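Request: Give me one sample?
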Amino acid sequence: MVEMSCAEHDWHAAGSQFITHTMGRTLEKLGLESTPINTKGYETLLNLVENTAGDSFDLYYGLFMYNVNAMEQLERLDLAFESLKKQLFGRLHGVLRKQLFENADKSKAFKEKPALPKPSQDVAALSSSNWIQVQNF
């Protein structure tokens, strides 16, 4: 047994028990199942789901309702998830940007003929098929 104040206990409980149950129940909502290629980490997640889903929702709700630190943990979890998504999408943006500019550089080799004749061309060139008719609406 460890001696601590009620406030310390609640702070630790929110950071360990509440987070554990929250993650287990979140993963349960995903409907995770065992696969033929489970890793040790994935097995740990499946065990977490099994351990937390076996407890009543009332226990989880009690951890939330009667611990003033639980809401802070939910907010921190939300911020952490948003930060992780931004990191992933930020890197994805860099990859797509690189691909777009590489493709743009490659397409410069396939320049199209100009639609309008160059100013130095004579009047005969204006009647050629290179001239585009402009229609006003």
Observations:
- The chain is about 65% helix and 0% strand.
- The two ends are 86 Å apart (CA to CA).
- The mean pLDDT is 84.
